[in-house]
Known about the structure:
Elements: E1 6-7, H1 9-34, H2 44-73, H3 83-114, H4 127-137, H5 142-163, E2 166-167, H6 173-192, H7 202-205, H8 211-217, H9 220-229, H10 241-249, E3 262-265, E4 275-281, H11 290-293, H12 301-309, E5 311-317, H13 323-332, H14 354-360, E6 364-369, H15 378-384, E7 389-391, H16 413-426, E8 431-436, H17 461-482, E9 491-497, H18 509-513, E10 517-520, E11 528-535, H19 537-547, E12 551-554, E13 569-573, E14 576-580, E15 584-588, E16 593-598, H20 605-627
Parallel strand pairs: 1-2, 4-8, 4-9, 5-11, 6-7, 6-8
Antiparallel strand pairs: 3-12, 5-10, 9-10, 13-14, 14-15, 15-16
Amino acid sequence: MRSSRTCxxxxxxxxxxxxxxxxxxxARMALLLLYPKQFASLGSFQVIKAFIEGMRFDLASxxxxxxxxxxxxxxxxxxxxxRIWQWIWTWVIFLIxxxxxxxxxxxxxxxxxxxxxxxxxxxxxxxxxxNLMGGMIFGVFLPYMLAFIVNAAILIYVWKKISRLTLSRxxxxxxxxxxxxxxxxxxxxxxxxxxxxxxxxxxDAFASGNTVYSNLVLNGVFSIxxxxxxxxxxNHYFFPSSEALAIxxxxxxxxxxxxxxxxxxxxxxxxxxxxxxxxxxxxxSYKYIDAFSGQxxxxxxxxxxxxxxxxxxxxxxxxxxxxxxxxxxxxxxxxSIIGLPTIGVGILAxxxxxxxxxxxNGYATIFVESLKRRSFRLDAIAGSAGFxxxxxxxxxxxxxxxxxxxGARWGWDYETYMKAADRMEKVKKPFLTYIVTGTTHTPxxxxxxxxxxxxxxxxxxxxxxxxxxxxxxxxxxxxDRLKKQPWFDKTIFIITADHALAxxxxxxxxxxxxxxxxxxxxAIFKPATIHTTWSQVDIFASIIDVLKLxxxxxxxxxxxxxxxxxxxxxxxxxxxxxxxxxxxYLRHSLSNRLETGSFNEKMPDAYFDSLEKxxxxxxxxxxxxxxxxxxxx
Length: 633
């Protein structure tokens, strides 16, 4: 006969909280043990303090997601102490906890990529992304998946014990109701994170000003729910509107206060029409191209040669840490802003579109990606940006003899370049081609022997180096093929990355965003090295400028082909914004300054004060214009 223990309903609920808190404790411990370099600057006391402070965020997450079943399971009448009612809601709580442990596991994996907790990224995957991530779970992330399964099995065993507890019955209805009211108030307090005027938010974890410490305090469940559901609560107002506009105007020309970022190009119709090929390479960090870093890795001979013959931008930065943020910046001139959806979800305000402008100026517009068509909704993004032709993995035939033709989950770069070449060779007018590649994304696939310079590993840096060598070879093949065309000397190639590679780096601020930019057109531009600061958001305006596309357009960025222009790199890492120039950088929570740093000589406080003002004024202006639909006419 099965034995059972008798306890009060609140003892049972306390046991549920203990088990749930243990899961969050294990997740935080996993972060500490798996990424020791990220938390190496913390002393033992700080680590202990972070774990204690983190319980506040854990309790808030647990309480919010458990609240309804917790209230139902403790209803203050004996009829609700029966086994069936208790069994149902106890296992509902279990399912919620299991989902939260899944989120915590995913957050641990994601932390390795961008050195921060997940924000809203997991909630904006499309169907194609789910398929890709599913494949990675059973490949690269198999150890994490196994750990999750083992943990789930242990939880089931523990939960069976909890569900079999026999509850004692109350002798006083009035006492039960009064106790229930107190219990309700305790849940409200825990869910709010304390007795403060406002509930705790992500920004409270950053109150210390120590980003490393804050990342240990936070948990993935809290960061995702807050960034996704509370993003509108982020403050974007720091100055009177006229003052914010004046601060931004110090660095750029503004003619129309209603549409401050709008420009008009009205050139002669007899202008030279160039072709343009834009290549966005997955995770191509600055340090992996010898012509930029001087590391002598020997994996980018074609890009090194093109750099020597073209324009080399040494202080160029990604505007974010996700592919969609780089795509948005380059296609629209709009940076990713906290609290507003990216182009992958849908930008509600009217904005300028690169493909549409090119089409109106008589260009053929071609968008080619190595990924599946629905990955990150790129097919919809290309269409929304005005590109008339779109090709994804499903449209690209395999050409090389790969050890595993289906092994590249994010597509084959060489075949993508060749597909783009096929289309460019067939058009009978100037063209704008936008190429997105993915072979350099983990897990790194096996390549033909002649393209593997290092021992293959799907998850380690050697595997990445091989894929960089492969995509560099593919770019070389593309250039050699297009050189045979009569229009080659009138074609401009712009090559950069979607974001910096998160793996295999020290995690410094600059390294998290520093990417290369190469403009290759030997017959049009003389070789030059440009040291001024630019970012992805400047590419949109630069393409419009160099192609002399007539019409109105709006962009935060300005053209780097105009030597009179000045720019700053506004960057985003999850729920934190930053700004970079040649001398240093600043990270900001939009509530308080988190971190500053100088690149060469130590900069004075006044410099960082000025950088902070420009960051906050720019953020405010961009947010206002998009929210008020004043980005573009």
